[in-house]
Amino acid sequence: MKMIQLFILLISISSFAQSKVGTIDVDFIISKMPEIVNVQEQLDTYKKELDLDFNKNMEVYNALIKDYTDNEVSFTIAVKKQKQEDIITAENDLGKFQQNGTKLISIRRDALLGPLYEKIGASLGKIAKQNAYTQVLQINDNLVYLDNDFDLTIQVLADLGVEIEPKD
Predict the structure, then answer these.
(1) Which has the least CB within 10 A, 33, 39, 59, 155?
(2) pLDDT tens-digit profile of 31-45?
(3) Among 39, 159, 57, 46, which Cα is nearest to 98's?
(4) pLDDT tens for each residue of 82-105
(5) Backbone torsions φ then ψ of 92, nearest 5 degrees
(6) Would you say residue 76 lies in a domain?
């Protein structure tokens, strides 16, 4: 039994030794791509459109509040109750609009960035195959150690035709 365990351990070590792992900083690449300017402009335009819609809803809400406070003394109990319900409904609608707006912006951002991620993925795939990488990890806060010799970020940027200024 110990021989089988030792054999499996040796196979695992030898297969791990044959793998080549690289890293990439996709966020850095995205920030350097010239297309990001157009993406940001489109997102800003979309946010402004959502803000206009929100402001219209806010005006309706404020008008309901003003009408209620200005005329409360003249309302019957039934009208008061209806006006209060209308105000609560408008307030809830504003809250839903804000939540949905955040989701809509996120969906739009993902849709606009999708083609950029595809370009990066195609370039990364080409470079990884050329250099015999078996795995590539995304650089993030969970990465404990990084040998810059295995970072493919600059190579992908070069393959995409994006020039960056060298660090001093």
Answers:
(1) 59
(2) 999 999 999 999 999
(3) 57
(4) 999 999 999 999 999 999 999 999
(5) -65, -40
(6) yes
